[in-house]
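ingest -> validate -> predict -> emit
validate: passed (alphabet ok, no gaps, 52 aa)
predict: started
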Amino acid sequence: MNLILCSENCRHQKDGYCCLREYGKITDVISSPCVYFDKREEEKDDKDKRTD
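emit:
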């Protein structure tokens, strides 16, 4: 098992390490040096979901 340090805002990054278990699609993202970078989606706050 390889431990790959990662500090990107990627959905595969957890606790400072890349947790990609199998090869995924190769992305063409200019903002990251990683070819498997997949930007983490922002979690919406429950306050935004209210309809008061």
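The chain has a mean pLDDT of 78.
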